Amino acid sequence: MRGKPKPCVSVRGKMIVTHCLEAVGTHPQVDAVQIVADEEWREIIYSEMPEAVQRKFSGFSKPGLIRQHSIMNGSCFLI
User: Fold this and answer.
1) What integer pLDDT is reported at residue 70 of this predicted model?
2) How far apart are CA 79 and CA 45, in angstroms?
3) Sequence-distant contacts of 26-31: CB under 8 A, at least 24 apart
4) DSSP labels for 36-73?
5) In the chain, which residues have pLDDT < 50?
6) pLDDT of amino acid 4
């Protein structure tokens, strides 16, 4: 197991990813949310996901070796 990913660090009682999902995932112009995360963090992220985002949640994608691969892996499911 590697260290805790930055999006999973807690700030003001919530993970950073949860704060982001509340802001972006609940926006009316956002139709779908695809999250790139290592399997060991998926259950934790989903458990803290706001209910409004769960309705738009399309799934998780595997992270890549570099950031560009992670972005590509996540965006392939949304096209």
Assistant:
1) 93
2) 23
3) 26/50, 26/52, 26/53, 30/56, 31/56
4) E--HHHHHHHHHHS-HHHHTTEEEEE---SSHHHHHHH
5) 1
6) 87
